[in-house]
Amino acid sequence: MDRLVFTGTGDAMGVPRVYCDCQVCEEARSTGANRRFRSSVSVAGPDGEFMIDCGPDWRTQMELAGKRFIRDIVITHAHFDHIGGLPEWADACRWLEIKGQLYAPQEVIDIIVRQYPWLDRHLEMHPIDQGLSLAGWGIKGWKVNHGKNGYSYAYKLSKPGITWVYCSDSIGLPEDQKQPLHGLDLLVLGTSFYKEEAEYTGRSVYDMTEALELLAEVKPGRTIFTHMSHDVDVRKDYGLPEQVSVAVMGYTVSLTKE
To answer: Which positions ≥6 away from 138 have C-beta within 8 Å?
Structure first.
C-alpha cells in the first residue's frame, strides 16, 4: 500500500515560535497537537520511498520516524525552510558512503549549488524539468506563484487509479497554473493562516478562505491543508467542508484507491 506521511506541516518559522506565548504556541510546547516542523512529506510503498523537501527540521523528523537514511528527496524550491536540512542529509551520505539522489528543476538546483557548493560531493542532483519516475510514481512539476517570495514548484504524482498534487507554497494562481489541479483525487495545499490580514502584495501563501474558493473551482476529491503558521489551531473547528481537513504531524494517508 502506498502511503503519504506528513513529516512537517509548519510554515517557514515552524510552531511554536521561540519568542511567542500565544495559545497555539503554548499548546505546542505542552500537549503538542499544534507542534509543527517545517513542511515536508514522505511517500512510501512497495516500489520504494522518497521525501518532498528537506527543511531545517529534517534530522529531528528522521529521528522521530526511526529512520537513519533516505536516498531520494524531491525539492519544491530553494527557500531555507525547504532546503535547510540538505547539509545534514549530505553528511549522512558522507558517513554512510551512499550518494543521495536530489531531484529538482534545474533553476532550483542552480540556487542550491550556489548556497551549498560542497553538496555535490555527496549528492547526485537530477534536473526534473521534463518530469521523472520515482518509487513507481510518475511525477511532473510546474512553476507556481509564491507571491512576494517569488516562485515555487508544485508536483503532480500519478499511478494507475490515483492522481494527487503537492503544492505547499503558492498564492493567487493564474489560470494556467490552476489547470493541473483539476480532476485530482487529492490536493495537498499550503494555507498559512485561516484568514490573513496582511497586505496582499506582501503575502506568499494562500489562507484557508482563499483556498476554499480555489477548491470550488478545481474540485479535488479530497484536500489536506499544510504549511500552517501559529495562527492555525488544529483543535479548532473551522467549519471546513467534509472533504477538506487540516494536517497534523505524523498524519498518514493511504494513496491506494480502494
So the answer is: 131, 132, 157, 158, 159
